[in-house]
Design the sequence.
DNA sequence: CCAATATCAGCCTGACTGAAATGG
DNA sequence: CCCATTTCAGTCAGGCTGATATTG
């Protein structure tokens, strides 16, 4: 027989990763969309909150979002009043991007949703298993980020 | 201080999943592209090889590829001579899709590449850790596939 | 002259939706 | 009449590239 007793896709680690990541992304996108936000908005607000006022280029590097996308997402965040852009007096090529008070409130709101998603995502795993999983994934990520 | 000592993104399971899946997808896409193939081609050939001649609708269900995309990918596979479409005599709405001999050779070639990618992907993990990881991911996937 | 910045326009993949035509 | 099938057209998000103008 040339027919294997298993299907290969569901047993491939690359498949498992892509499928679980897809479920995860759906959960996240949906929860954020419920609040009228996208993934980029959360990532930018979180990065901005953690590293303080930055130029757009720095923001892109730290958040891992490409500059073109940073521009578009910041336009949206600025329209909603969650960030402010002002020219840097020290370097007039730059915009200094800052989180507003409304932006901090927004971030807290999104943080809650993101945390809820983590719990939904890992629901079938025990606390120890969650630590195992994040540990293994962290090592994989470190390895592949180190060797491009 | 309102600034946490960690950045939250790298510690979120959903982030770890999406990033490792991204690396994985890049590895896979690149290796397949080296042979002039895409992910859909491999998935369709593998599904076809495992479940035998099928209608396009069945193929889509089994491989998890949407019908519109099945059509496009089959067009490509048929042009390359890896699959053949013929009208089903029993139900003339259907196309029966079959793998050709060239298609089986092609699948073997792609299978090798896919296997190599798994090894590259899991390089930093020991054999036991690989089993751990696939086990945890399999449980996550089963859970989320069961509760849509 | 060169480097960095900000912006805009567009490509590609994968997942997904809707409409239309045809045959059972 | 209803339903399944096939096909095409198009949406959307994320990741990515290239060109341009401006400033240092």
Sequence:
């Amino acid at each position: 027989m040339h027919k294997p007793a298993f299907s290969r896709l569901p047993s491939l680690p690359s498949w498992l990763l892509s499928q679980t990541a897809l479920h995860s992304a759906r959960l996240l996108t949906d929860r954020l969309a419920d609040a009228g936000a996208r993934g980029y908005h959360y990532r930018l607000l979180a990065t901005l909150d953690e590293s303080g006022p930055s130029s757009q280029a720095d923001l892109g590097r730290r958040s891992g979002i490409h500059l073109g996308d940073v521009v578009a997402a910041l336009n949206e965040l600025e329209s909603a009043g969650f960030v402010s852009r002002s020219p840097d007096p020290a370097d007039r090529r730059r915009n200094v991007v800052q989180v507003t008070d409304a932006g901090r409130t927004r971030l807290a709101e999104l943080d809650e949703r993101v945390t809820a998603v983590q719990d939904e995502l890992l629901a079938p795993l025990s606390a120890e298993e969650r630590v195992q999983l994040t540990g293994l994934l962290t090592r994989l990520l470190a390895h592949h980020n180190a060797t491009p």
